[in-house]
Design brief:
The complex is a heterodimer. By secondary structure, chain A is of the alpha/beta class. In chain A, 42% of the residues lie in helices and 20% in strands. The radius of gyration of chain A is 13 Å and the shape is globular. The radius of gyration of chain B is 48 Å and the shape is elongated. Classes of the chains: A alpha/beta, B alpha/beta.
């Protein structure tokens, strides 16, 4: 079963995405605290990591930089409503692969996890 | 004394009358004695007035007959008999009929009733119809009659008073292939007629113009049907189906909304607030002020497309326009624009091609097979989104599913919260558990549908964005889900997907 990590300070959004993705057969772990999420991303193995761009305490670009520094093979997607946000460029430069428009674009999750075998490892 | 004298006078008058009539038929007597006696229409003529002057001897009942000039009608005057005189009889009347030569169409009932009334009420009757001829019936050849429904729709389309949204009133009678346009009416033979004297009257053959079926009609023997979808039109002697609707001026309150099964040519503007739907192509020689314009085939706006209050333009084929502004446009074929796409949402399953000076400024352009433009964005940093390589129709369906699953997940979360609070009764808790199960089932079905659609999402990994001039910061490019944020002015430049590197790469384009 493929594992997805969500780091977003909007707790309800994390829960909603978790419910949808779990129904699709993914194992979902969510954190509304970016530091805790970043720690989990580095310490554990996830097939996909979704990181919100604008969070208090630590923004998504910084989180991405930290994760990619430790785990350059990680597949990170940035969640944002504003592609023109300067942090987007930073996150992409750090190694984030794509942007998910808020609340989330299911098509991109499928795309990056493989459309035909979502949920299966 | 006076009374006695009055009785004596009456007795004298009565005796005198009896005396005169005892001499026989005075009338006959007079006829015999006079030369050039005029023809009479009377049964019994009153005694000569000079003989009766002062005596009032009374008269028998009689009738006079008059035949109309065309010989088609005969009328009679019925005169009652005086006291103690001979009333008019049917035999006597028949004699007069014979005398007048009336042999056909005699209305015996009228005659009998008139005689009875005249004799019993002692009232004269005038102008009683006593015979009627039979008019000839013209021969009618086999002919076509327009289907009444079409004529009704034609008349319905005429302006009328009352509360009505004239945008919904159309002056066009539209038909579909196979609709009945007209029916053959079998001919009827002519019939001879006659006047009241029995004189034969010949019939004519009707010479009114007969309808002939025109183009795009099929004769099925008993009826004429439309050979194609289109506008039903008729002239003086013919009717046809026109597969092309030409609107001479603007689409406005004079035309109402247009919903036509074939091609539509509009020689004026499509005014704001008016919809056009065509089963074929739409050609507008002026501006489309789009509210809702859709075509199963191509749309060509020689001047441009301006969307107002959320206007949409959809084409099953290509869309060509001088410019597109503030509008939502989608096409299954290419979108070809001469000068610019401004603040619009344009989607195509093919490519977007802009002319030599064509600019995309603001809004979002999704083109499965790529985009070619002179400029994208502006030095002012106007946000402009470019998405290529994916099927936007599938994308829209998946986004709809995502929206619904998100709503369902939100509800599930709420139900879970209530269940955790433990404040509900057992019955209520069971209800919440059932509700959660149903919500999850609904979400699962949607997710399954999303899984099926995914196979159709990725359209063209070779799609490119080609900018012949400049692309500016504020422009966001996505090809096959992978992003490229333009941070500095670039160009001429080409953006494409490097699948091996898993990112968008750029290459210089030779300046024209």
């Amino acid at each position: 079963m493929k594992r997805i990590l969500i780091i977003d300070d909007e707790k309800m959004l994390v829960e909603v995405i978790r419910i949808v993705l779990e129904d699709l057969g993914y194992q979902v772990t969510g954190f509304d605290n970016p530091l805790e999420g970043q720690k989990a991303a580095i310490e554990q193995d996830f097939d996909l990591i979704l990181v919100d761009l604008r969070m208090p305490d630590r923004d998504g670009a910084a989180v991405t930089e930290s994760i990619m520094a430790q785990k350059p093979e990680a597949l990170v997607l940035i969640i944002t409503a504003y592609p023109e946000d300067p942090l987007v460029e930073r996150a992409l430069t750090a190694g984030a692969r794509a942007l998910l428009r808020k609340p989330f674009e299911i098509t991109k999750i499928f795309h990056f996890l493989g459309a035909t075998d979502h949920g299966s490892s | 004394m006076a009374a006695h004298k009055r009785v004596a006078v009456e007795e004298f008058l009565a005796d005198s009358e009896r005396f005169l009539w005892s001499m026989g038929n005075l009338e006959d007597l007079l006829r015999e004695s006079a030369e050039g006696v005029e023809p009479t229409q009377t049964l019994h003529r009153s005694p000569p007035t000079e003989l009766l002057d002062g005596l009032n001897p009374g008269i028998d009942g009689y009738a006079e007959i008059r035949i109309s000039e065309d010989g088609m009608e005969a009328t009679a005057t019925f005169q009652p008999a005086s006291e103690d005189k001979i009333p008019l009889s049917l035999d006597a009347f028949t004699s007069v009929l014979t005398e007048k030569g009336i042999t056909h169409g005699v209305l015996w009932t009228n005659i009998q009733e008139a005689i009875l009334t005249c004799n019993s009420d002692r009232l004269p009757l005038q102008g009683v119809l006593i015979a009627r001829g039979k008019a000839p019936i013209d021969e009618i050849p086999k002919h076509l009659r327009i289907h009444s429904e079409l004529l009704r729709r034609e008349s319905d389309s005429l302006p009328y008073q009352g509360r009505i949204d004239y945008r919904n009133a159309s002056p066009f009678v539209l038909v579909k292939e196979g609709d009945v346009l007209a029916e053959w009416i079998e001919g009827t033979p002519g019939r001879m007629g006659h006047d009241v004297t029995g004189k034969a009257l010949s019939f004519h053959t009707k010479t009114t113009p007969l309808l002939k079926p025109g183009k795009n009609t099929n004769d099925e023997g008993k009826r004429i049907i439309a050979a194609c979808d289109g506008r039903f039109e008729k002239g003086k002697n013919t009717f046809w189906v026109n597969p092309v609707l030409e609107v001479a001026g603007n689409v406005d309150y004079r035309t109402g909304h247009i919903d036509f099964p074939g091609d539509v040519i509009i020689w004026g503007d499509i005014k704001d607030g008016f919809n056009v739907r065509a089963g074929g192509s739409i050609l507008s020689t002026a501006t489309i002020d789009a509210t809702k314009v859709s075509s199963a085939a191509d749309i060509k706006a020689k001047k441009g497309i301006i969307g107002r209050s959320g206007g949409t333009v959809r084409a099953g084929g290509t869309i060509e326009a001088k410019f597109i502004q503030n509008c939502t446009v989608s096409a299954r074929g290419s979108v070809i624009v001469e000068t610019g796409i401004m603040n619009s949402h344009v989607c195509t399953l093919d490519a977007v091609q802009l002319g030599g000076k064509g600019v995309i400024l603001g809004g979002k352009v999704c083109a499965q097979n790529g985009i070619t433009a002179q400029k994208i964005g502006s030095p002012m940093g106007v946000r402009t989104d470019i998405v290529c390589g994916i099927n936007h129709e599938v994308q829209q369906k998946l986004e709809w599913i995502r929206e619904k699953t998100t709503q369902l997940a939100f509800r599930i979360k709420q139900v879970e919260g209530k269940l955790k609070s433990n404040s509900a009764s057992l019955e209520r808790q069971q209800h919440l558990v059932d509700l959660k199960t149903r919500l999850k089932e609904a979400m699962h079905k949607l997710n399954e549908a999303a899984g099926m659609l995914l196979f159709k999402l990725d359209g063209d990994e070779q799609a490119e964005v080609v900018v012949r001039g400049r692309v500016y910061p504020g422009v966001y490019i996505e090809i096959c889900h992978l992003p490229f944020v333009v941070r500095e002015q670039m160009g001429p430049i080409r953006f494409r997907l490097d699948k091996d590197k898993g990112k968008i790469v750029t290459a210089a384009v030779q300046e024209p």
